[in-house]
Amino acid sequence: MAKTYDAIVVGSGISGGWAAKELCEAGLETLVLEAGRPVNPDTDSVEHVPVWQMKFRGNRDRKAMLMRQPVQRNCYACDELASKFFVDDLDNPYTTDEGKPFLWIRGRQVGGRSIMWGRQTYRWSDLDFEANAKDGFGVDWPIRYADIAPWYDHVERFVGISGQAEGLGQLPDGQFLPPMGMTCAETHVRDAVAKYWGRDRVVTIGRCAVLTQSHNGRAACHYCGPCHRGCVTRSYFSSINATLPAAQATGKLTLRPYSVVHSVIYDPAKKRAAGVRVVDAHTKHLIEFRGRVVFLCASALESARILLHSTSPEFPNGLANSSGQLGKNLMDHCMGGGADGTIPGYEDRTTYGNRPNGIYMPRFRNVKDRSPNFLRGYGYQGGAGREGWGRGVDQAGFGADFKRQLKELGRWNFGFYGFGECLPRPENYIELDPAKTDAWGIPALKIHCAWSDNERALLKDMSVAAAEMLSAAGATDIRPYVQDNAPGLTIHEMGTARMGRDPKTSVLNGNNQAWDAPNLFLTDGACMASSSCVNPSITYMALTARACHFAVDAMKRREL
Amino acid sequence: MDRREALRVLGAATAVPLVSRDLLALGRDAHARWRARPEFRVLDADQQALVTTLTDLIIPETDTPGAKAARVDQFVDVMLADWYDVDDRQRFLDGLADVDARSTAATGKPFTDATPAQQTALLTTLDDELARLREAHQSTSKSFFRMLKWLTLVGYYTSQIGFEQELHEHIIPGMFDPCRLLDAAARGGED
What we know:
The complex is a heterodimer.
Chain A (H helix, E strand, L loop, with lengths): L3 E7 L3 H12 L4 E4 L7 H4 L17 H7 L25 E3 L29 H4 L1 H5 L9 H15 L1 E2 L13 E2 L6 H14 L6 E2 L33 H11 L3 E4 L2 E9 L4 E9 L5 E11 L3 H9 L25 E10 L5 E4 L6 E3 L16 E9 L13 H8 L4 E9 L8 E9 L5 E6 L4 H20 L3 E7 L30 E2 L2 E6 L14 H20 L4
Parallel strand pairs in A: 1-2, 1-10, 2-7, 3-17, 4-5, 10-20
Antiparallel strand pairs in A: 6-13, 8-9, 9-10, 11-15, 11-18, 13-14, 14-15, 16-17, 19-20
Helix pairs in contact in A: 1-8, 1-12, 6-12
Chain B lengths: L2 H11 L7 H10 L14 H14 L13 H11 L3 H22 L8 H20 L8 H14 L2 H7 L10 E5 H5 L5
Helix pairs in contact in B: 3-4, 4-7, 5-7
C-alpha cells in the first residue's frame, strides 16, 4: 500500500515553499509536488554571466521566443539569460476569446516564479479588506488586518524585507531591515511632493525582499542588478534560496519534481480529499499520492485548473465548487498609467551600483477623499537615475566627440508607474477548454478576461496625477502616458477560488480551507477575494503560513 | 585622473566579503557558452570591411579602443543572421550598398577606399538625414543609419571592451551609493 503523507503540497513557488517550510517544521511528513525540473541556485543562477558571453548580449533571442515563448516574451524579465525560467508556450497552451488577450506568464520549475519575481512586498490594510463590503463588488473578506498582521510579522522576519517605516494607515509598516537609499532626484521629488501634499502623498523607498544586511544565513545584496536571473548569494527571497532549504533541513520534506498534478482525489465516504493524482512528466504515467491534508499552491490559475479538473459524481463541476464560484472573479492589477520627466540639477551626482528596487508611492485616491471617477485606487512604483549610453541612438553625432559625450552621464530621469486595483467581477473567469490539452494530456484553460471601465479610469488618473506631481517637483520634458497592457502581464493574477464568509458564494473559508472538503487548503493567489493595489506575494506568504498553522492545530486536535 | 577609473578601484576595494569568489566564478564559467568567434554568415568580406569602417567611425579608438577592436562587426553579423527578420536584414544590406553607391558617386571610390575626410562627410550627411526625420517627428524605424547606430552602440557598450575599459562598469559593484558626488569619486572615492 502506498505511503500516506501527513501533507501534500502542490507547487513549490512562493506559496508552496512557505507551506513546505511551515508544515515540515511542525513535524509533518510533507510531499511537495512540482511540475517542472529541479533548480540549483549555485549552478542555475546566471546573474553574473557577462552579457558579452551571450549571443545576443542579454537581449532576448527574438526568433526562438517567437517560436516557443510567444506569450512569455512579453514579460520584461524573460531575457536571453532568464528565459529558461519561463515556460514553453507550446507545451503549456491556453486559449482566450477573440479580441480579449490574457498574458499568462508562468514558471514551471522548483521555486516557480519566486525565482524571477519582482520582490516588492507591501502589506494590505483594512482599506483593502473592507473594500468589497463597502462598494459591493465581490464578497466580503472573512478576515481583517488584525487576523493577518501577526502572520505578516512571522513571514517578514524570515524573508527579510528592506524598507522604511512611514506610519501610514493604508500601507502598514512591517518588520524591516534597513532601507535602500534613494537617489538624489528621488529625494528631490519626495521632498517636493511632501511640500504640496504633506502626508497624503508619500514617496518612500520600495519595500523589497532583498537583504540589506546578512539575515538568517543569507548574504546581503551585492547590487549586481538582474535578480530575475537568479542569485548565488541567496540575497533575495525565493523558495530555492530560503523556504525549501529550511524545509529540507527538518528531514521531513520529500520534493518530487517532474510531477504534473492531474487532479485532487475525493473520498465521498469521508467527504475529504484523499490525495492527488500526478502525471509523471517523464513517463506520462498516472500516479496517486495519499495525504492527510492537501495544500494547493500551484498559482491562482493552476490551482483552480486542478480543482476544475477534479470531477467526481459529488462534484461534477470540479472539487470545492458547490458554490459555482471556482474559476470566477479572475483579477490582475492594471498597470501602466504614469509619467516620466527630467529632474534638473544634480549634474555633479550619480549612483553607484545597481539597486534592485525603486521608490513607492502608496495609494492616495479614495483614502481620505472620494474620487468621483472610480472606485478604489492605485500606487506607483518608479525611480530616478541618470541616462547612459543608450541615449546616443537617438542623438545626433558620431566620432570621438560623440563617444566622449556618451561616456559622460545624461539627464536625471524620474518615472512614476502606476499599479491599480482590479475589481472582482464574475465575467472574468476561467474554464477547462474542451478541445485543447497540454503536453501532459491535462485540459488547457480557456481564459475570459477584460478590463472594466473602472480599471481604465484608474490608468488615466495614474497618468494625470503623475504628471501633476512631476510638475510640482519642477521636472521638465514631462511625458505622461497610458499603456494598453493586457490583463495577466502584471503577473498578479488572483481570485479564482475566493475566500468568503458564506459557502454558497465562496470556495474557501477564512482559514483558506475548502468549504467542501475540510482537509483541502488553497493558499495561493486564487484565494483572494479582492486585489488591493499592492504587490500580492507577501500576503500569499502570510495567508499560507496562517493556514498551515491552522491545519496543524486542527490535526493535533484530531479534527483533520 | 579618470573618475571612472577611480570608481573601478573603489568598487574593487568594497567587494562584499560575504560573497565567495569561487561561488561567483561558478555561475560565470558554467554559462560561458558563446565565446568562440562565429563564422560570418551574412556579411561577405567587402560588407564586413564596410561595417568595420562605419562602426569605427561612429565609435573610434580614442584613449580607449573603439568599435573595431570590440569586434562590433561580428555582433552585427550575428544579429543579421539570427535576430532580424528578412526584411530588416535586407534593409541593412541595401543601406550598405547605398553607402558605397553614394561614395562612388561623390568620390569615384567605394566607401572603404575613400579618404577619412570623404568618409566623414558622407557619414555627416547620413546623420543629418536621420536628424531631419526625428525633427519632423517621422518614424526612424526604417532608417538604415539608425539601425547601424543602434547596432554599433549596443555592440560596443555591451562588449567586454566597452563595459570594462570605456565605462569602467563592474558586474559586482558590492554596494549601492544613491547619490555619489562625481568629484569625490574622481578624487578617489572620499564621500
